[in-house]
Specification:
By secondary structure, this protein is mainly α.
Length: 103
């Protein structure tokens, strides 16, 4: 538990913060807490196409209806993240192959 003295000292120290003062720094720091990758709250990454995910989900939904399965959205999200993980995992190998072909 924080003592009153320690709490007050923290308050005083926070006023000395070196937080961004100019707009460029403020815009950049807004993204500091954004989680990316497989632990992100959103399924679709910044470099991914939302329409691609919607089409993927529709295909999954058609399959789920045909199989009589429910709760398709969470399953679509898990399968989409699995696809992301495979892409991330294969990235270094693809770079290595591309570099070796340049030689």
């Amino acid at each position: 538990m924080t003592s009153i003295k320690q709490f007050e000292a923290s308050r005083r120290n926070s006023l000395k913060s070196t937080r961004p003062k100019i707009e460029v720094g403020k815009r950049a720091s807004r993204c500091n807490a954004v989680r990316r990758g497989l632990t992100a709250e959103t399924v679709i990454g910044a470099l991914e196409d939302a329409e691609d995910y919607k089409a993927f989900h529709k295909r999954r939904l058609r399959c789920a209806i045909g199989c009589g399965a429910g709760a398709s959205a969470p399953i679509s999200q898990l399968l989409w993240r699995r696809r992301q993980a495979i892409t991330i995992e294969m990235g270094p190998f693809e770079i290595q192959v591309a570099l070796s072909q340049q030689l």
